Amino acid sequence: MSHSVVQPKLIIHGGAGSSLQGKGGVAAVRQLLSGIVETVYQALLRGASAREAVVLGCRLLEDEPRFNAGTGSVLQSDGQIRMSASLMDGAAQRFSGTINVSRIQNPIELADFLQGQSDRVLSDAGSAELSRELGLPIYNPLTDLRLNEWIEERKDNFSKRSMASTVAEVSGAELSGAGVSGADSSAGRGTIGVVALDQQGRVAAGTSTGGKGFERIGRVSDSATPAGNYATDRAGVSCTGIGEDILDECLAAKIVIRAGDGLSLAEAFARSMQEAAGRGRDLGAIGLDATGAIAWGKTSEVLLAAYHNGDRLGDTLELPDGLQTGSC
């Protein structure tokens, strides 16, 4: 086995949703995502493993309240926040995750710890008990924006008709709630994810979400399943969009397996997205492979993704609406 140093590669996403409203919105999201890409990429250049880089990137995205993961997660129908996250180490072919965990700052850190355990995917009660065992401080991820969204929707019997105006009133942001925070009727498409290739040629993927928003208690998203987050020693993929659509497509695993069975990563994305679009799915995905290829695809209007290909930063913020795939 060669021990030559590989040029690291990185791609991240902050969800999928509706169109961004104006250049001010695009500029703000671009600055935010590119800053996180730069931080994580520098860690890769300093020798961080793919798994370490993914955890770092997910943590930074979870801490950014504009995204529906960690701080800034949406509320469920009972007014509680329940978050899910998963991590897959492609080199070890090992998946771990936490489902519907509450009152912690970074769900990805639980998923990271579970990589070394015999029981690697825990639901709400198990995740809460593990948090206590690890001595993680109790943390409230609620933001004023999310609380006001929930209050307004409760008035309207959770019809989601009034959400966009609520976002404008509460945040005063230049960004549409759907396109940036996953906050309006696109709340169910809000997720964050990171896929990394390190200097040793190892691939890892991580995904984290606050959920659909206003959902039935106990609903499980795709984010802590191999449908939404999957990696092997050949490739890794993180998904975003309507969780049920991603589960129905088993999207992340499908793309990764196709990329390992003879298709290029770009071809695997193109075929999988074409199939998903044909079935009316609303989703997006990012990925990379062990050769250093980076790819993405979406059937939604917007995919909030940014990447570093070893030479430069790039993003997917201004792709045309609807079905699109790309690679570099």
Task: Kindly describe this structure.
By secondary structure, the protein is α+β, with helices and mostly antiparallel strands. It has a single domain, classed as Glutamine Phosphoribosylpyrophosphate, subunit 1, domain 1 (4-Layer Sandwich). Helices cover 34% and strands 23% of the residues. The chain is built from 10 helices and 13 strands. The strands form 2 sheets. It has an 8-stranded mixed beta sheet with strand order 4-3-2-6-5-1-11-12. A 5-stranded antiparallel beta sheet has the order 7-8-9-10-13. α1 runs antiparallel to α2, α2 runs antiparallel to α3 and α5 packs antiparallel against α6.
Keywords, please?
single chain; 328 residues; alpha+beta; 8-stranded mixed beta sheet; 5-stranded antiparallel beta sheet; 13 strands; 34% helix
| SSE order | EHHEEHEHHHHEEEEHHHEEEEE
CATH fold title? Glutamine Phosphoribosylpyrophosphate, subunit 1, domain 1
End-to-end distance, in Å? 26 Å
Query: What radius of gyration results from the CA coordinates?
Result: 18 Å
Would you report the number of β strands? 13
